[in-house]
Amino acid sequence: KFHCSHAVVSFILSLLFFHPSCMWTFPAQNNKKMLPLSTTAHRFAMIGPNIDAANVQMGNYAGNTDSSVSIIDGIKAYLMNDDSHAEVADIAACVDTACQSKEKFAEAVDTAAHSDLVIMVMGLSGHQEGEGHDRSKVNCVDVEMDVLGLPGCQETLLKQVVATGKPIVLILMNGGPLSISYAAAQVDAILEVWYPGALGGTAVADVLFGKHAPMGRMPITTVASSGDLPNATDYGMATAPGRTYKYFTGEPLYPFGFGLTYGDIEYTAIQLAPTQIKVGHAACTNSNQGRPYSLHQLKSR
After folding, report:
1. Mean pLDDT over residues 255-283, rounded?
2. For position 24, what pLDDT does the model report?
3. Beta strand pairing status for 189-192 and 87-91?
4. Residue 65, class by beta-carbon neighbours within 10 Å (0-12 exposed, 13-18 middle, 19+ buried)?
5. What's the Cα-to-Cα distance from 139 to each of 73, 143, 148, 178, 257, rounded to whole Å?
6. Is 147 within 8 Å of 119 (Cβ atoms)?
């Protein structure tokens, strides 16, 4: 029991919250503040290839376990324990993250249209990324997709669900960066959960419904599209131009260090002594409005 609880808490520390209302490129785009969710919604729709993908949650370096909790199982268990009378309708719509068939898209759209709120769980799997091979580009039938975008017809599915006008929370499961410009502009909230492990469903539900708050920060920079990246043959880490966030001069979709939590946090009186240090002292004062938690991080260059 201790190990299970520790796994859930450790994962929560890595969760990243992207909310379009606070996105640094669109500071006043949307003020709905969708998360955390209320359990009083009558009907939830869960859609996407990773809603029930415990094997994908484990990532590329993991042993076997017989006690995995998928995203949908975690959410259903949370609602049951909360004595919520909410209904959860689910449809993956895609066989896997390659998402090569639109056969079930109409059913998914109908499920979304008859819900109060849609939770979409999309992203990647070990089939698209992993040790020993580059990210593979997976087109949507006859439509070419960006290699850093959602694979296959996932974005097409997302667009059709967005057209219903229902509020949408997008959960992303992936290891490397995803260029999700369309989603960032259209959905109400985005939660980056990476490959969350065996108990990922439990941790994600705890964060979605506000039992815990996300505290993660981006360890990488996400670009709007693969076309924004410099030549792939230049991986210099010490000198420009390089292929790292340190030398990126474009407009990133999400910059290194980005991440939100619930509520508003203000940092003031930031001090660094001395200004150039190998070992020194940094201090600040922060105030939390609402009930947020914040994991303070100082990143040096």
Report:
1. 75
2. 27
3. unpaired
4. exposed
5. 30, 6, 11, 15, 30
6. no
d(CA 224, CA 179): 5
pLDDT tens-digit readout, 16-51: 665 443 322 222 223 367 888 988 878 999 999 999
CA distance 124 to 173: 6
| SS3 category, 179 | coil
Cis peptide before 252 (omega within 30 of 0): no
Determine phi and psi for 8, rounding to 5 degrees: -65, -50
The angle subtended at Cα 253 by Cα 219 and Cα 300, nearest 5°, is 35
CB 110 within 8 A of CB 241: no
**SS3 call for 199:** coil
pTM of the model: 0.86
CB atoms inside a 10 Å sphere around CB 103: 10
Which has the higher per-residue pLDDT, 295 or 170? 170
Nearest Cα to Cα of residue 187 among 172, 205, 174:
172
What span, in angstroms and rounded, lies between the C-alpha atoms of 282 and 262?
25
What does the pLDDT look like over 163-191, one tens digit per residue? Answer: 999 999 999 999 889 999 999 999 999 99
Identify the burial level of 39 via C-beta atoms within 10 angstroms of its C-beta, where 0-12 means exposed, 13-18 middle and 19 or more buried: middle
Q: Which tokens in the block code for residue 284?
A: 């600040």
Tell me if 270 sits within 8 A of 286, measured CB to CB. no
**Which region holds residue 112: left if phi is over 0, alpha if psi is between -120 and 50, else beta?**
alpha
Give alpha helix (H) positions in 82-199: 105-113, 154-162, 181-186
pLDDT digits (tens, 9 = 90+) for 203-244: 999 999 988 888 888 888 889 998 888 766 666 666 776 667
